[in-house]
C-alpha cells in the first residue's frame, strides 16, 4: 500500500485511501527468549504454552496465611464455646473472606499452571488444577492482532502484564492476565503470532517490546 510519484520519485503511503485498507506498521523485532517458568510444546497443527505460577512469594505468604487463619479459628472457638453474641460471630466475616481468598491464592501459587492451547480452529486458556477466573476460548480466525499491556500495580511496586487480542470486529479481549514478568507476556505474544501466522504490528497503547 505504497505509491511512488513519477515526477519527483517521492514514495508515500496510500493505505486507508481505498475501501478495506488501513495503515498498519509492520515491524521486525528481536526474538524474546523463553522465560524459565514457561514450557512450549509445538507441532505443525498445535501449540501448547504452559506457565507455572510458582514464585518465591508463595513461601512468604504461607506463614501469613497460617497466622491469619489461626487467629480466626481461635476467635470463633471462643465465640462458640462461650455462646457469644451474634456481633462477635458476624464482625470478622470480611476477615474470613480475605483469609479464604489469601489461602486459595497461596495454594494456587504452589500448584497452578496456566495453559494456552492454540490450533487453527481456536485459542484456549485454562488454569488448573485449582479453579481460577480467566479461562477463555476464541476462534483463531477472529484474532487480527496480539499485543501486550501493563496490568495492575500493587502496593509493593510490582506490576503485572497481560496479553490481549484485537479481534477482526475491532474489539479487544484479554487473553491471559497476571503475568509478573514483561518477558513472559512478550514471549507468549511472539509464539502465538508465529503459530497463527500473524504479522507483528504496532497497536496504540501496547507494551514496548524488549
Walk me through the structure:
With 210 residues, the chain is an alpha+beta fold. It has four helices and ten strands. Strands 3-4-5-6-7 form a five-stranded antiparallel sheet. Helix 1 (57-81) packs antiparallel against helix 3. The chain is elongated, with a radius of gyration of 24 Å. The model has no long low-confidence stretch (mean pLDDT 86).
List the helices and strands and how they pair.
Blueprint: E1 2-4, E2 11-13, E3 38-43, E4 46-52, H1 57-81, H2 86-90, H3 93-111, E5 113-118, E6 122-128, E7 136-139, E8 143-153, E9 159-167, E10 172-179, H4 182-196
Antiparallel strand pairs: 1-2, 3-4, 4-5, 5-6, 6-7, 8-9, 9-10
Helix pairs in contact: 1-3
**Terminal CA distance:** 28 Å
Given the C-alpha coordinates, what overall shape results?
elongated
The main sheet comes to: 5 strands, antiparallel
Which runs of at least 5 residues are low in confidence (pLDDT < 50)? none
State the helicity in percent bands. Answer: 25-40%
Radius of gyration: 24 Å
Strand order of the largest sheet: 3-4-5-6-7
Proportion in β-strands:
25-35%
Class from secondary-structure proportions: alpha+beta
Mean of pLDDT: 86
Number of strands: 10
Order of SSEs, N→C?
Answer: EEEEHHHEEEEEEH
Number of helices: 4
List the keywords:
3-stranded antiparallel β-sheet; 5-stranded antiparallel β-sheet; alpha+beta; 30% helix; 4 helices; 210 residues
Summarize the structure.
This protein has helices at residues 57-81, 86-90, 93-111, 182-196, and strands spanning 2-4, 11-13, 38-43, 46-52, 113-118, 122-128, 136-139, 143-153, 159-167, 172-179. It has 210 residues and is of the alpha+beta class.
